[in-house]
Amino acid sequence: MKESIANAYILQIVIVFVVIFIFFFAGSLTYSKAFKVKNRIVDIIEKYEAYNDPAKSEIASTLSEMGYRVDTTNKGCPTRNGQESIVATNNGYRYCVYEYDTNKGKYYGVAAYMYFDFPIIGNHLEFPVYGETKIMGIIG
User: Fold this and answer.
1) pLDDT band at 132 (very low <50, low <70, confident <90, very high)
2) CA 123 – CA 104 distance, rounded (Å)
3) Which residue in 27, 66, 89, 90 has its CB near the most CB atoms, within 10 A?
């Protein structure tokens, strides 16, 4: 009887480690996807050297091809470093673009989001993944 109780505790420990491993794996996949989305948006903005209409349409088509999550909550973009987001509508996708002006020129900050859904408790979490473009239109 003593061995069966010890085996039950070992089985519980193994199950806990498997669940923890699954959470880390899911988090890694979600972060990787958000990181790719952020990098792709940064590349498109650098390609057009601004967040303009051609960049917006290419971003929308790229996000639909990548399978990025469509946002149904219509949350706005938070302020970042005292700067408001310049994105009014994102074609249903949740990402934020910030424009910063410096003495050397302007650059853009991009925030894409990674999502975690918990269907049993009906809750979802989102965390931003932020990156910046290089300075464009360098003055002098």
Assistant:
1) very high
2) 44
3) 90
